[in-house]
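Quick question about two entries, pasted in order.
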Amino acid sequence: MTSQGAPSLRDLYNNPSSSWSFVPVVDNNGNGASSSSTSASPAEASSYQWSSRNSLYDISSGIDIEPSSLNVSIAVRGAAMSALLVFFSTAVEIPWEVGKTLLQVQYVPREAHAVEEPEEVTEEEPPSEDELSADNDDAYFADEDGSSSRVNTPRPTDDRGYVIRQSVSDSSTRASYVIPLGTANGVWAMIKQVARWKPEGWLGLWKGLATTCLHNILLSKTQPVVRSILAAFFGPSNARSFSRPHVLSDFILSPFSLIRTRLIVQTSAVQHRRYTGPFDAFNQILHMYFHPQLFFPTILDSATHVLAESMGPRIAARLFSRLLGFGPNSHIAEDTHPFLWALAQLTSSCACLLITVPVDTVRRRLQAQTRGSAAPIATCVETRRRPYVGVVDCIYSILVEERSDLPLRPKKRRGHERKASRTGKERADAAETEISEPTSWLRNTGIGQLYRGLGMRIGANVILFLLTLFVPTEDADDGWTEL
């Protein structure tokens, strides 16, 4: 029996045709061309028209990818989402701005002292009969004319009969809407103080929110314009190394800073409030912006930020290169040493705060004062009654007149020390105890008043440094952000 193998398929193989075949298009009358079983020639394939509809997805294949007109609904929706994002981010930031601004403008003279806290109620032993008889004898033979506590000395008054306030520590003449002096030494402490103070409350932490939102929106719109102008004059690379674009944009929008400062500083009490909103404040104090004592600090503040942010990282990078032993031809750059460059930015940013924070403090104090024909405002914190003449006078007055040991701790006295029937020996011992109380050197200098909010800004720079390490950003040339 002979076995026969399977037939070979080699003879049945044909080379595939390189030409295309198409399905004929059916016209409107329902007449269709006959399908050709044979492959069409290249000339016929090139002259054939594609079908207007896709048989697989049943969609039109002739869609115009480029829009011919702007979709208004999508543009409005995008603008609304962007505005909401700016609003919520500003709402998180503005309480810290309120606390920092109030700390910067608060006036704390050297002779200021805190109001005594209410004494604690303590149970005391009833006095004996001998002590009662001795107290009665002292009271009987006491000289009433020599007792200063019983003499009502008249207090100076103004033309309208109101008592003139001699000191900011006088709680009897302090307005009910003014926060007590020296109760906060940091931004977080001031935030808590504003929230607890009845005329302000929690809503007082969001004063100037609308102004800040409008400022941030306009800032984002003017950044591309400033960037293009810098690139046209200095070139793209030089424009980026010169300064951050938003610094110059912030100078253009600096009137919003004046409005925001005065809205934050004024009290929230309705009967004493001067401005009802940002537009009302804009109409009343716009002419104040060009006052020399306000315009020059704005230029100084912007120029200080420009120099600090353009030259600071380079100086810090060169210092790190020398400390780490880099060669003369090698230096720290963003593309070669990203971690060291970020560390140099952090170091320079914290070091530049020693210059920029005092300038910002002086600018806020000058903005809180009334200039020109503008009406004075009732502030929610203590401010200097006599206005500053300029930048130099403001710095000198802060260093010479104010104290920095905040908060001012009130002295608690025991019940037997506050009794009116104390003997002379007990009064002398109490006075000696008060005189011998140690005082800090910050009581005799106002240098701490120039650096209110410094810790918060350093913390913000550290957080931003950590974010740049773990969360890469799309645009690395935006620089650092300062609260």
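Here is the second entry:
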Amino acid sequence: MRGIIGVDIGTSLTKAVVFDEAGASIAQACTPSKVHHLPKGAVEQDFEQVLGTVATVVRDVAAQLDGPVEALALTGQGDGVWLRDEAGYPVRPAISWLDGRANALLTEWQASGVTREVFRRTGSGMFPGCAAAILSYLDTHEPDVLDRAAVAGYCVDAVVQRLTGEITVDISDASLPFVDPVTRRYDEQAIAACGLTHRRGLLAEPAPPKTVFRLGAAGAALLGLPEGLPVTAGPFDLPACAIGAGVREPGDGILTAGTTLACQVLTRDPTFDPEGEPAGMFLCTPNEADYLRAMPAMVGTAGLDWACRLLGIEVTDIGPLLAASAPGANGVRALPFLSSSGERAPFVDAAARAQFSGLSLESSRADVVRALCESIAFAARHCFEAAGLSGTLYACGGGVRSPEWTQIFADVLGRPIVIPGDPGVGARGAVLVAGEALGEPFDVDLWAGNSRTVEVVPANVEHYERGYAEYQTSLNAARDHWTL
């Protein structure tokens, strides 16, 4: 057993896990983070509270170990903007990737060609909760805040700065939207296209691959760990989950059914179609030969949470309700775009909104839940078609804890789904990256062996082919009518 604590700083939950040499978790802890939903689509987090969750889970897991902690491996949520000063203290609350205050700005950028210009240079689309849109919004509405800030970064590097004193950013976080994936450097013309050249100094330079930081005195006191302890930072949670799940061959993909419905496919070709739909992300990874074409849709488990509140049910009721309604949900259909900031993959539209159709007096709660779950699976298929899935498909996240919903995903996607045996997939990825950076890599084949496969039901695959065609028709019709 190596005492590397993997920490995944999620949007609503921070987890810490220690794994044995075979990749099985031997100690773990989690604690919630607070997400503040404010008027006009604003979504923020208190950085000090989030940092406190890291201290809580690290101390908890360290107390469970028989031996010493040897390193700390961090991953966490991406996008948004976490502004702080030279010492790493926030100059305003962190703005989440879920934020929608820049909806109107993003719509203007789409009309004026800004989003297309940035996509041509970086392969990444922009959405209201990405750093470019938020920074531009703040430059207009809160310029004094940007004047006080020393760095505009992300969740993981904000935590790293407080723990180690280093101002840095992982290349995966920096990828959206300003990094040219071929050069792995910021594209100055992409920054200029967003009108942010005068704020260029807020962007930290990406750390080289396999960079190892050291825990400073303040970080050591916060975590109760020795000063000088090795710390690795990144990649952020999307590529970390891909690494942790076992995605290693071009064409392999991973479905993360969490707050975000993240669909990613591995490629070793850094080129992209500059005239394609300006959506998704082209993510650099710790391995300079590997890239992830990511389509992180906004239609994840948050939609199921909404349905639970609306229908007066618990999350534990989802499985039985799915079982109580046949494929096709007795004619009920849905578009799942419930986020107040619209959609960001495989298309970007800040005005995207959900709809249900085919409802009658005979429709049940089970039909509504199944229609929503099927529509999210259709959205996943749309994303994977855009990302180029051709190999093995892996899956993780809270959504795949439901056997019924996982079966829907497999049947809609028309392929088996490999589910890693340990739920802490993001932390697994961070720890695997840490092993490489520390010069003591783990046996990735051994780690990948602890998994199960969900096979498709052929009759359902045929049914969902028709359902997906209907979904596309409804989506295309709806896009003509969405307005802010």
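Reply: The chain has a mean pLDDT of 96. The domain at 4-239 is CATH 3.30.420.40 (Nucleotidyltransferase; domain 5). Hope that helps.
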